[in-house]
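Lab notebook page, bench 4
Experiment: in silico fold of construct C2
Operator: M.H.
Input chain length: 270 residues
Purpose: comparison with the prior construct
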Amino acid sequence: MTTATDAAGQAPAPGPAETRTPILRARRLVKTFGRVVGLDGVSLELYPGEVLAIIGDNGAGKSTLIKCLTGAEIPDEGELFLDEKPVHFKRPQDARAAGIETVYQNLAVSPALDVAANLFLGREERKRGILGSVFRVVDQKGMREKARNELKALGISTLQDVTVPVENLSGGQRQAVAVARAAAFGSKVVVLDEPTAALGVRESNQVLELIRNLRDRGIPVILISHNMPHVFDVADRIHIQRLGKRAATITPESHTMTDAVAIMTGALRA
């Protein structure tokens, strides 16, 4: 399997997995905040139908990298490519319009609204004809039917009733709603930021299964997580950040969790 050391931000030498064309590629991203260097020439490749985990110690640049990939931050230097075409995201809406959906740790769901309304939050569909075009009446029935179909397609069996307010759901179910929303509209890439944080074992396993279902549907996933067992459970490749750089890209087959932690801390060079 493929391993790579990348202190200079260069893409690793091609291996079996890299013969494919990346759906998302970052090349030598640099982001500074005054004298603080958030990213120092970081490169990243995400391939179709894979789960790419991003790990690193606090301050390693994980959040900054994700923000640059999703339009929340604009890199000072470097290039981004989506489907091998250069893209320049100036805000999160630009990334969403391009098909990159992000689920942050705080979920950004509306507790008072039901499951279906949360899936279509900000993308509400109107009724056909004059009711929708003139009076802007929301097609609640149609959205609920589409919500049921999306949850079923993702294999989410814990949300049978899409009319239930989100405030009545468990933490794992709320995470499922947020991920389902991303999957429904993220035609290219889904980014998950600490999706199992603060969840119990059972609910965490449900979220991990949801990630596998996304991959099985051909949707590539970027997973940011501090939970190493979860990372090694679902990730196909693991991008390791250290001190604002990409320290290595490894796989669960090529390295152990102990190896990954050692690379994160600088005790081991890949």
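Observations: Residues 1-17 have pLDDT under 50 and may be disordered. The first strand starts at residue 4 and ends at 6.
Next step: discuss at group meeting.
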